[in-house]
Design brief:
Elements (H helix, E strand, L loop, with lengths): L1 H9 L14 H7 L7 E6 L4 H13 L3 E6 L4 H10 L3 E4 L4 H13 L6 H14 L5 H9 L3 H12 L5 H8 L3 H15 L4 H10 L4
Parallel strand pairs: 1-2, 2-3
């Protein structure tokens, strides 16, 4: 799998290429400290606490987008990684072409998650993170400026769409979109697009 995937990726030059490999998730941080990858693909074979902690440390310490293969039926380790900031899960049955497409979408700013995973994560966030009332949620929306409300509505109507596409829809730059999102996240007390979707789902705002 690794050789076939590496060959397939390198065939896409100059669009993408493999710039490094590591034998385990635990070794990735030390092996990649002199590299600047845009996307890191993790082969998450073992669901041990050490490997999970290594993945969480990697996610928190890199600006690269992290996506990983799902080999275990234990969804908890994958859910924790996604909630920590990983961008996607590649199913073990995926073809090399599907893997390549997932990497491309992740690089563009999308998430690569199937619908059951998205629903499970949203339910988890709804149950544990948002305990406030619907009144509080409405008050949070009221804090948004007219421009922020427009960005908010566009975001929740285009789940999974790359940021650059949303920016084009709004006729603004990606940097302006990021600034609006930072303000929206702060006012609604969320930290990511996934949490924003959960906020909408929890408070029935859509």
């Amino acid at each position: 799998m690794q050789f076939g995937l590496q060959t397939l990726i390198n065939q896409q030059r100059p669009k993408m290429e493999v710039i490094g490999r590591s034998s385990s998730c635990i070794d990735v941080l030390s092996n990649f400290k002199n590299l600047s990858p845009d996307v890191i693909v993790l082969d998450l074979i073992h669901d041990s606490e050490d490997e999970l902690q290594a993945v969480l440390n990697l996610i928190s310490s890199t600006s690269a987008k992290v996506i990983f293969f799902k080999w275990s039926e234990n969804t908890e380790i994958y859910d924790k990684a996604i909630l920590a900031g990983a961008k996607g899960i590649i199913e073990k049955e995926a073809t090399l072409e599907t893997i390549l497409k997932a990497i491309e979408k992740i690089h563009e700013g999308q998430v690569w998650l199937n619908q059951p995973t998205i629903e499970r994560l949203i339910n988890q966030l709804s149950q544990h993170k948002f305990k406030s009332s619907d009144v509080h949620a409405r008050n949070g929306i009221d804090k948004l400026t007219p421009k922020e409300k427009k960005v908010f509505l566009t975001m929740i109507e285009n789940i999974g769409i790359p940021a650059k596409v949303i920016a084009t829809k709004l006729h603004i730059s990606e940097s302006t979109l990021r600034n609006h999102l930072t303000a929206i996240y702060e006012k609604l007390e969320v930290n990511s697009r996934l949490e924003l979707w959960s906020y909408v789902h929890k408070h029935k705002l859509k």
